[in-house]
Specification:
By secondary structure, the chain is mainly α. It has a domain of 58 residues. Helix content is 67%, strand content 0%. The radius of gyration is 28 Å and the shape is elongated. The termini are far apart.
Length: 108
């Protein structure tokens, strides 16, 4: 029984020391490729949240329409398909729609 206690105590001390050593290590540096992937994953997660909100809005409208027997007054906005635009390309894309809205086309 004493041999088992010594083994358990030794294992506990080693586990404690190894956890302290890991806690002192600095965070690993991310490469540029990893940062781009992380940004894309964050953008996709945000888009997925918008899609979930859109589907929830549609479901709520359907329930309200069934309950009140009338068309719902709430307008759900479809976020559209997922399109990832890196941060360095965002100013170029933001400038293009602003220029097109400055001069609206005349309808005959």
């Amino acid at each position: 029984m004493t041999k088992t206690m010594k083994t358990l105590c030794t294992a506990a001390v080693l586990a404690l020391l190894s956890s302290m050593a890991v806690a002192k290590l600095p965070a690993p540096e991310l490469s540029d490729e990893a940062k781009v992937k992380a940004a894309e994953a964050a953008a996709k997660a945000a888009w997925a949240g918008k899609i979930d909100g859109f589907k929830l809005c549609q479901a709520q409208d359907k329930v309200v329409a069934h309950y009140k027997k009338a068309a719902p007054a709430n307008a759900c906005v479809d976020p559209g398909p997922f399109v990832y635009m890196p941060a360095d390309a965002a100013p170029v894309a933001a400038a293009a729609p602003a220029a097109s809205t400055a001069a609206p086309a005349k309808k005959p």
